[in-house]
Specification:
The complex is a heterodimer of chains A (about 110) and B (about 110). With about 110 residues, chain A is an all-beta fold. In chain A, about 0% of the residues lie in helices and about 55% in strands. In chain A, strands 2, 4, 5, 6, 9, 10 and 11 form a 7-stranded mixed beta sheet that branches. Chain B is mainly β. Chain B has a single domain, classed as Immunoglobulins (Immunoglobulin-like), CATH 2.60.40. Chain B starts with 9 loop residues before the first strand and ends with a strand. Classes of the chains: A mainly beta (about 110), B mainly beta (about 110). The interface of A and B includes residues 33, 40, 44, 100 and 103 of A.
Chain lengths: ~110, ~110
C-alpha cells in the first residue's frame, strides 16, 4: 500500500476563486489519478496525472477548469478554477500500485459559496 | 464528517448477521472487479478484487462472487460488525479501451444495527 496525503482536507471558497489541492505520496508511483465525488454519489474520474506530460482528461472535464500538475513521481496538484457552487464536492487523489488496485487519499471537501 | 450515503441504496443488518451487497456491472470485457469500502469522512479503501476468469474469491471475513452470465458481482461479509458500517462501491477495471481506469458503481450504504 501507500500513504497518501491530501491538502487541504476541507475548504470553503468564494465563487470565482480558484483552489489548488495537493497530493503527496510516500513512494514513487507511475499512475496518479484525480476523482470527484459529489454528495451522496459515486466517484467520477477527472483525469490521469502523467509525470512529465499533460494530464489525460475524461469526457466532461477540461484542462482550463481543472489544471493538473505532476512534477515528479510522488506529487501532483489539481486546481479547481473559477469556482461556482456546482463545484462543491469531494476531490480525491489516488495512486495505482498494482495494475487494477488504486489507493486513495482522504479527500478534500470543497464548499463554494 | 459529512455522509457520502445521502442518496444511496441502504442495506440494514443486525450485528453478527451476514451481509450481502450486490452490484451490476456494465462492461463484459473488464479484467478485474474490485470492492471498496468508504467510511464517513475518508477516502475509499480497497477490500478485495477478483479477476474476470474466476467466479469466487475469499478474503478475511469477505467473499466476492462473480456471475459473468448476468454481469453481477456480490460482496458477502460474514458476522457483520459495527465497524463494517460504510458505503461499499464495486468498480470495474480494464477491458476494451478503458485500460488503467477504475469505473465505479453507484454504491450501497451498509448500516449495522447493534
Amino acid at each position: 500500500s501507500a500513504v497518501i496525503s491530501q491538502k487541504p482536507s476541507r475548504d470553503i471558497c468564494q465563487r470565482g476563486t480558484s483552489l489548488t489541492i495537493q497530493c503527496q505520496v510516500d513512494s514513487q508511483v507511475t499512475m496518479m489519478f484525480w476523482y470527484r465525488q459529489q454528495p451522496g454519489q459515486s466517484l467520477t474520474l477527472i483525469a490521469t496525472a502523467n509525470q512529465g506530460s499533460e494530464a489525460t482528461y475524461e469526457s466532461g472535464f477540461v484542462i482550463d477548469k481543472f489544471p493538473i500538475s505532476r512534477p515528479n513521481l510522488t506529487f501532483s496538484t489539481l486546481t479547481v478554477s473559477n469556482m461556482s457552487p456546482e463545484d462543491s464536492s469531494i476531490y480525491l487523489c489516488s495512486v495505482g500500485l498494482a495494475k487494477n488496485i488504486q489507493y486513495f487519499g482522504a479527500g478534500t471537501r470543497l464548499s463554494v459559496l | 464528517g459529512e455522509s457520502v450515503g445521502l442518496h444511496l441504496p441502504t442495506l440494514s443488518v443486525q450485528e453478527g448477521d451476514n451481509s450481502i451487497i450486490n452490484c451490476a456491472y456494465s462492461n463484459s470485457a473488464s479484467d478485474y472487479f474490485i470492492w471498496y469500502k468508504q467510511e464517513s469522512g475518508k477516502g475509499p479503501q480497497f477490500i478485495i478484487d477478483i479477476r474476470s476468469n474466476m467466479d469466487k474469491r475469499q478474503g478475511q471475513r469477505v467473499t466476492v462472487l462473480l456471475n459473468k452470465t448476468v454481469k453481477h458481482l456480490s460482496l458477502q461479509i460474514a458476522a457483520t460488525q459495527p465497524g463494517d458500517s460504510a458505503v461499499y462501491f464495486c468498480a470495474e477495471w480494464g477491458g476494451g479501451g478503458a485500460t488503467n481506469k477504475l469505473i465505479f458503481g453507484t454504491g450501497t450504504l451498509l448500516a449495522v444495527q447493534p
